[in-house]
Write a structure and sequence with these properties.
Elements (H helix, E strand, L loop, with lengths): L7 H13 L15 H13 L3 E8 L2 E8 L8 E6 L16 E3 L2 E3 L3 H20 L8 E6 L7 H6 L9 E4 L7 E5 L1 E10 L14 H19 L12 E9 L9 E10 L5 H18 L4 E10 L2 E2 L5 H14 L5 E4 L5 H6 L3 E4 L4 E2 L7 E3 H19 L3
Parallel strand pairs: 3-6, 3-7, 7-15, 8-14
Antiparallel strand pairs: 1-2, 2-6, 4-5, 5-17, 8-13, 9-11, 9-12, 10-11, 16-17
């Protein structure tokens, strides 16, 4: 079998170029450029390697890139995934787009989340091409838009049958552990309704804000109870928080309406219907106790939790490749946050996560450990050989 070697110079240059390219998500920051320039760079790099490349827009100015390293059709196919967008740079105390290498770490916006991973994916595919590895199955490298807001990139990608693979590796940062589970979430609008009246006319007014207060008191009890439930062994317990609260119009008027937006984090095995029923039960109890209490519970966005089996073929392949590279078996972990892995799993792809070591995601000082990016590239290349097969 051909020896796989990661081109360190290529990886470093690629990572630096990606960091220098502003790809802040335009939904998150005014006048942000989005992923367009990064997508062109990724597509051109993949074409130079000889891959079949598809570069298309999910929405105007919001591109996805898919590169296909074609196998001979006799093996399993593998999809590698990273997002191109980053969060904004307000409050950063380091240059966001001027990569700095210090003590083995590279600093800048998106270094860990997740341009280090994207660079590792490109370096892994280059290693396979350079070694002239003849894979039995295809490898698809996918660079997607908008993960930092609503994941329109991966959500669209999974609707294209030509981009379906037997397994997917999402390279979100995991400190080189193999992640096999994470929580999902549901966003809710809870509204209470009162009756507007002048502040002096208590006999006419019904205070929607006060009624929301009753709901929030019960919600606090539910939140505490959720965290006492038996947790998922990898992803932890469910949770919720009241994120936004808005009610009333003027200080001398009884509030006719109050809105509370809630995020409910779901663990594997929970459904949106179950979470909604818990909130509706609070409303039903309060309505039964007071006929002036009126409220609605409306879920308006959700992402499913994710879990995979430890003995799945892709989990075994990644674990073996990581052990070979690192000299020890990688940890098997879950994460409390959501990732695009859930989208790939939902359409039947066997999914896991593995990504580099670093810190400061979404914060003032973001960094990635360069050696771990090299390790990730080697693990991905070896996993492709193990999972897809080679001749």
């Amino acid at each position: 079998m051909a020896t796989l070697s990661i081109d360190e110079s290529f990886l470093r240059d690629t990572l630096n170029t990606l960091i220098r390219t502003n790809s802040i998500n335009p939904t998150l920051a005014v006048d942000a450029p989005g992923e367009g320039e990064t997508a062109v760079y990724v597509a051109n790099t993949l074409r130079q390697m000889g891959l079949d490349v598809t570069h298309y827009e999910v929405q105007p100015g919001r591109p996805n890139v898919v590169g296909r390293l074609v196998g001979n059709g006799n093996g399993r196919s593998l999809l590698l995934n990273a997002h191109m967008d980053t969060v904004g740079v307000d409050g950063m105390t380091i240059p966001p787009f001027d990569p700095i290498l210090r003590d083995g770490n590279v600093y800048g916006r998106g270094t860990q989340d997740m341009k280090g991973s994207l660079a590792a994916m490109l370096a892994a595919v280059k290693a396979l091409v350079d070694a002239d590895v003849k894979l039995a199955g295809d490898v698809l490298l996918t660079a997607v838009c908008d993960e930092e807001y609503s994941s329109i990139g991966s959500a669209d990608l999974v609707t294209h049958p030509e981009f379906h693979a037997d397994a997917a590796i999402v390279t979100e940062p995991t400190d080189l552990a193999v992640c096999r589970a994470h929580r999902g979430y549901v966003w809710y609008n809870v509204e209470t309704f009162g009756r507007a009246a002048h502040g002096s006319r208590f006999q006419d007014g019904i205070d929607a804000n006060m009624r929301m207060g009753r709901f929030l008191a019960e919600l606090d009890k539910l939140e505490q109870e959720l965290r006492q439930r038996p947790p998922h062994p990898l992803a932890g317990p469910p949770s919720l928080h009241a994120a936004r609260l808005q009610g009333g119009s003027e200080i001398s008027i009884y509030a006719a309406h109050c809105l509370c937006q809630i995020e409910r984090r779901t663990m594997p095995g929970e459904t949106e219907a179950q979470a909604t029923a818990e909130l509706q039960a609070i409303v039903d109890r309060l309505s039964a106790a007071d006929d002036t209490f009126r409220a609605t519970v409306t879920p308006f966005f959700q992402r499913e939790p994710f879990a995979s089996e430890p003995d799945s073929p892709i989990a075994q392949a990644v674990t073996a490749a990581a052990a070979q590279r690192l000299g020890h078996a990688p940890a098997q972990v879950g994460q409390p946050f959501w990732t695009d892995a859930a989208l790939f799993a939902a359409v039947g792809m066997d999914a896991v996560l593995i990504g580099p070591i670093g810190g400061g995601l979404h914060s003032a000082v973001e960094w990635v450990d360069l050696a771990s990016v090299m390790d990730l590239a080697a693990i991905l290349a070896e996993t492709a050989v193990r999972y897809c097969g080679s001749n």
